[in-house]
Amino acid sequence: MKTNRRDFLSILAANVAMTGLASGVRAQTGAAPRVVVIGGGTGGCTAAKYLKIENPNLHVTVVEPNRQIYRCWGSNEVITGHISIDDITETHDALRDRYGIDFIYDRAIAADPVARTFTLAGGDVLSYDRAVVSVGVDFKMDAVEGYDQAAADGPIPHAYKAGEQTLRLKSQIEAMPEGGTMVIVPPPNPYRCPPGPYERASLVAEYFLWANPTGKVLILDLKDKFTKDQPFMLGWNRLYGFNIPMEKMSGMPADVRTYDTPGRIEWVSGSNGGRVVSMDPGNMELTIEAGETIRADVINYIPPQRANTFAFDMDLTDGDWCPIDAETMESTRHPGIHLIGDMTIAGAMPKSGYSANTQAKIAAAQIARLLSGETLIEPTWSNACFSRVSNQYGVSIADQYRLDRENNTIVKTPGAGGISSLNATHQVNRMEAFYQAAWMENFEADVFE
Amino acid sequence: MSRTLLGALIALFGTPVAAEDALLGETLANTCAGCHGTMGVPAVPYIPPLAGLTNEEFIRAMEAYQDGTRQATMMNRIAPAFSDEEIKAMADYFAALPRPDVTRSTIRNRPGN
């Protein structure tokens, strides 16, 4: 009977928004359990929304410093002008108005996991029965000689947290001299949005086709492989004169071409000495492991990453990232605090917005059951991610994930998932670009509306 | 929940499916929502609504994605992840939801623009 009731509440949650029945439902029970969510981005917003869908009686408060946030997914399209910064700017109005979620615009500065409280910079102390922390990543600013915070704030934007950084990189690319070179330096694994640097290279190369026809994108990588590398490289070969390295030729279709002169995208792998060992921001120069010093007109160095500083301050980390109990997504260091998104160690799942979104739903479902004393659900997660190789050419990855209870980790469901086929027709590549655009709308709504 | 409200919901959505089944279906279905929309209702219909599909429609589509008789961009990779029992549970979950009328057609950065 209890479970039936919750199923109805789940259905009801969608309807309270339309009919305004929320207060009537809330009045049915006594003291509402309190859930505090730290972070109003992709993970935090999804968690807050699905907590209210699970149980509209819960009192859900989100603590977030910014009234407007810039989502990272879609930000590569801002850099190349396909969409504007307004298109990736999100508010919390819909979540507040439709689901009755409280938002406090402040910064959490301390946690007491025993008393179950958070202290905010403004002085408020929030008590919780259960908490969700979803605060993403911060950068390691000292990994390469010559690079520091001043470089990131000045000549070398990472544009890997969206907003001002995104717009600065955009204006640098627009101001590039004819025939100039943009260098992209992807970070070491693990990092947020694994295809992000490579989609960025693709879209900038596409922008150069008409804005700077002799302009070039040079990727200096410390890795030998990256997500969807073959579908990306096939697209680059077809669109941007990219020569596919021999070791990536396995399974490539017959239309792959070899170009006499390098095209708009070049990729130097780790094995070929692509690792950047030092930088001179003043002269816009990078020196790579191969020994060469390269001068660039735009440098987009994306620093190595770790969990957000807040997670270290709250003692939620082990090494660079946050360990969790995979079944509940609860911190193994501090019970009662559930951790989701890019900051967590989530087994086989990539650090993506979609991962954070499905992790948030599992955390929400388990929190609702832990608070009511009901049996936990058997969790499942998914990740689906489209990248634009050009405006009209998309590639994707999709995987479903399960709990490996024995090893307390999250594993890929075998026999399923994977990346776009190298034998996809032109029509399918085009459809994947179209679905990327449609996905962006639907995903935005699932997170923020 | 009041009996009146419960009655109204049953009238709206039909007799509740078995509790265990619904729970599993909801958990699995939430993994679809990032593309197909919250509770199977997307903002734009190009990735189609799942809410309100009949059991038969949903199961037939998933089986066709599994065996390749229906070709898609991504679903042929996703459908094999689920057992028959799981597909049935998702089908029951979506069939119990009202079929939405999704008419918004504007999407940003549509290919070709």
From TrEMBL, chain A:
<feature type="domain" description="Flavocytochrome c sulphide dehydrogenase flavin-binding">
    <location>
        <begin position="378"/>
        <end position="448"/>
    </location>
</feature>
<dbReference type="InterPro" id="IPR052541">
    <property type="entry name" value="SQRD"/>
</dbReference>
<dbReference type="InterPro" id="IPR023753">
    <property type="entry name" value="FAD/NAD-binding_dom"/>
</dbReference>
<dbReference type="InterPro" id="IPR037092">
    <property type="entry name" value="FlavoCytC_S_DH_flav-bd_sf"/>
</dbReference>
<dbReference type="Pfam" id="PF07992">
    <property type="entry name" value="Pyr_redox_2"/>
</dbReference>
<keyword id="KW-0285">Flavoprotein</keyword>
<dbReference type="InterPro" id="IPR016156">
    <property type="entry name" value="FAD/NAD-linked_Rdtase_dimer_sf"/>
</dbReference>
<dbReference type="InterPro" id="IPR006311">
    <property type="entry name" value="TAT_signal"/>
</dbReference>
<dbReference type="InterPro" id="IPR015323">
    <property type="entry name" value="FlavoCytC_S_DH_flav-bd"/>
</dbReference>
<feature type="domain" description="FAD/NAD(P)-binding">
    <location>
        <begin position="34"/>
        <end position="147"/>
    </location>
</feature>
<dbReference type="Pfam" id="PF21706">
    <property type="entry name" value="FCSD_central"/>
</dbReference>
<protein>
    <submittedName>
        <fullName>NAD(P)/FAD-dependent oxidoreductase</fullName>
    </submittedName>
</protein>
<feature type="domain" description="Sulfide dehydrogenase [flavocytochrome c] flavoprotein chain central">
    <location>
        <begin position="166"/>
        <end position="303"/>
    </location>
</feature>
<keyword id="KW-0274">FAD</keyword>
<dbReference type="InterPro" id="IPR036188">
    <property type="entry name" value="FAD/NAD-bd_sf"/>
</dbReference>
<dbReference type="Pfam" id="PF09242">
    <property type="entry name" value="FCSD-flav_bind"/>
</dbReference>
<dbReference type="InterPro" id="IPR049386">
    <property type="entry name" value="FCSD_central"/>
</dbReference>
TrEMBL record, chain B:
<feature type="domain" description="Cytochrome c">
    <location>
        <begin position="20"/>
        <end position="98"/>
    </location>
</feature>
<dbReference type="InterPro" id="IPR036909">
    <property type="entry name" value="Cyt_c-like_dom_sf"/>
</dbReference>
<protein>
    <submittedName>
        <fullName>Cytochrome c</fullName>
    </submittedName>
</protein>
<keyword id="KW-0813">Transport</keyword>
<keyword id="KW-0479">Metal-binding</keyword>
<dbReference type="Pfam" id="PF00034">
    <property type="entry name" value="Cytochrom_C"/>
</dbReference>
<keyword id="KW-0249">Electron transport</keyword>
<keyword id="KW-0732">Signal</keyword>
<feature type="signal peptide">
    <location>
        <begin position="1"/>
        <end position="19"/>
    </location>
</feature>
<dbReference type="InterPro" id="IPR009056">
    <property type="entry name" value="Cyt_c-like_dom"/>
</dbReference>
<keyword id="KW-0349">Heme</keyword>
<keyword id="KW-0408">Iron</keyword>
<dbReference type="InterPro" id="IPR050597">
    <property type="entry name" value="Cytochrome_c_Oxidase_Subunit"/>
</dbReference>
